[in-house]
């Protein structure tokens, strides 16, 4: 510069205490939410419950998460982020304790209810804490700050979901007390997150104030068609993740003829971890093409999974996990960005909340159907049917996405 002044880019403040507290809490919650997935088959063999009960154990937490999100998300705007996060983490700690000391199926359901309440109470406040930190992450560059917040949330949520079953499988396979130790270890991480939240999360003084009311739902008429396509795609993507999070380790164990919990849990970890990698790698892909490619990848992955179930075995199991993971990541990120970009700011909160309701229904409803089918026909046959149905629906939805591309040609531009 002519005046000799040295100008530097704003420095990123990754170590903002509130930002770090929100990220730690979010990661710990999502790791714990999926940790039991590695152990459902072992609990089932130990306690003698049915495949339907196994799927209901997964679904019951989803049933609690959704209404809690709608209640506690807006509440954190009024009372501050700290209180809902503390309440949620304490509830999750109770869930870990119930799992570690479980004496029967009722204990497992109580543990999942506590975990669902903890997720619903704390996750919205934790994500809001990340968003509140935008101005401190990259001072003077809010767009860059928002991107870093989105990447951090993606990493905490998706990779947390992947690490959970892997942690549970490794400890159950190679450490003592296979049905207890992983929950004790996770409880210790919850305590660490609690300390971080108590010390650094914003309290009432930083709240927006006003009166509390539950999250508003609704979709304005001018974005209804876009919402239907995006939310239907997302429903299918989360349906795959929900159904197979509940049964995939058990299913892979049967496919590969192994009881190694670390190996069977790694299949689920691979699928979810691939989803996170796809979201980060293809984040520059426009939303509608992302959904179209994602639906195709989901369909291909599910077909490969059926082939594996019919005898192809390990030859196609890994490609099946990779394809379904990529498909889920592209559909989820593409659908959410499409809704965000096309919805007026004044309606964005209601539309996004409605989108998450549909996504959580996708996470919970197909897994119940899978459980009902498994009760009549066995887990392998039920998994094949569910995979075929969702694959066919994915293929049928691709033309609808391309129809949106033709209707709005500018949406395909990078």
How would you describe this protein?
By secondary structure, this protein is mainly α. It folds into two domains: 15-207, Growth Hormone, Chain: A (Up-down Bundle); 216-414, Growth Hormone, Chain: A, CATH 1.20.1250.20. Helix content is 79%, strand content 0%. It is built from 14 helices and no strands. Helix 3 (51-79) packs antiparallel against helix 13 (348-377) and helix 9 packs antiparallel against helix 12 (314-342). The longest helix is centred in the middle third of the chain and has 33 residues, at 142-174. The radius of gyration is 21 Å and the shape is globular. The two termini are 34 Å apart. Mean pLDDT is 85; it is low at 1-14. Residues 18-406 form the Major facilitator superfamily (MFS) profile domain. It is found in: Cell membrane. The chain crosses the membrane at residues 12-31, 51-73, 85-110, 150-171, 183-206, 227-248, 260-280, 292-310, 316-335, 355-375, 381-402. It holds the Pfam family MFS_1.
Order of helices and strands: HHHHHHHHHHHHHH
Share in helix: over 70%
Strand content: under 5%
Number of strands: 0
CATH C-level name of the largest domain: Mainly Alpha
CATH superfamily annotation of the largest domain: MFS general substrate transporter like domains
CATH architectural arrangement of the largest domain: Up-down Bundle
- Give the overall form: globular
Structural class of the helix and strand makeup? mainly alpha
The CATH topology of the largest domain, please?
Answer: Growth Hormone, Chain: A
Tally of individual domains:
2
Q: What does the largest sheet look like?
A: none
Radius of gyration: 21 Å
Low-confidence stretches: 1-14
Report the average pLDDT across residues: 85
Number of helices: 14
Instruction: State the distance separating the first and last CA atoms.
Output: 34 Å
């Amino acid at each position: 510069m002519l005046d000799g002044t040295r100008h530097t880019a704003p420095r990123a403040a990754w170590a903002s205490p509130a930002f770090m507290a929100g990220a730690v809490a979010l990661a710990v919650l999502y790791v714990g939410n999926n940790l039991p997935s590695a152990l459902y088959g072992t609990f089932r063999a130990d306690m003698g419950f049915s495949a339907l009960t196994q799927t209901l154990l997964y679904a019951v937490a989803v049933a609690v998460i959704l209404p809690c999100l709608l209640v506690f998300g807006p509440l954190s705007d009024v009372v501050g982020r700290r209180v809902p996060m503390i309440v949620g983490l304490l509830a999750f700690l109770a869930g870990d304790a119930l799992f570690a000391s479980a004496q029967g199926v009722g204990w497992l359901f109580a543990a999942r209810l506590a975990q669902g309440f903890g997720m619903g109470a704390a996750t919205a406040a934790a994500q809001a804490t990340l968003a509140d930190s935008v101005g401190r992450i990259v001072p003077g560059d809010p767009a860059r700050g928002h991107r870093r917040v989105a990447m951090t949330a993606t990493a905490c949520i998706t990779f947390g979901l992947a690490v959970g079953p892997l942690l549970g499988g490794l400890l159950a396979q190679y450490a003592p007390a296979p049905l207890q130790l992983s929950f004790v270890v996770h409880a210790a991480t919850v305590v660490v997150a609690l300390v971080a939240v108590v010390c650094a999360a914003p309290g009432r003084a930083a709240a927006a104030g006003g009166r509390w009311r539950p999250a508003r739902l609704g979709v304005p008429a001018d974005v209804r068609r876009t919402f239907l396509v995006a939310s239907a795609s997302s429903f299918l993507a989360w349906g795959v993740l929900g159904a197979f999070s509940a049964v995939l380790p058990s299913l892979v164990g049967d496919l590969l003829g192994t009881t190694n919990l670390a190996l069977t849990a790694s299949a689920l970890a691979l699928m979810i971890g691939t989803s996170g990698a796809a979201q980060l790698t293809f984040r520059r892909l426009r939303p509608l093409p992302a959904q179209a490619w994602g639906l195709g990848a989901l369909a291909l992955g599910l077909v490969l999974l059926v082939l594996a179930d019919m005898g192809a075995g390990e030859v196609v199991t890994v490609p099946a996990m990779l394809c379904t993971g990529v498909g889920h990541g592209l559909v989820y990120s593409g659908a959410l960005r499409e809704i965000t970009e096309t919805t007026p700011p004044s309606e964005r909160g209601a539309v996004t909340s409605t989108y998450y309701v549909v996504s959580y229904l996708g996470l919970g409803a197909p897994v119940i159907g899978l459980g009902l089918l498994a009760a009549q026909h066995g887990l392998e046959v039920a998994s094949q049917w569910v995979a075929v149905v969702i694959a066919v629906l994915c293929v049928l939805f691709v033309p609808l996405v391309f129809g949106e591309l033709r209707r709005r040609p500018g949406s395909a531009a990078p």
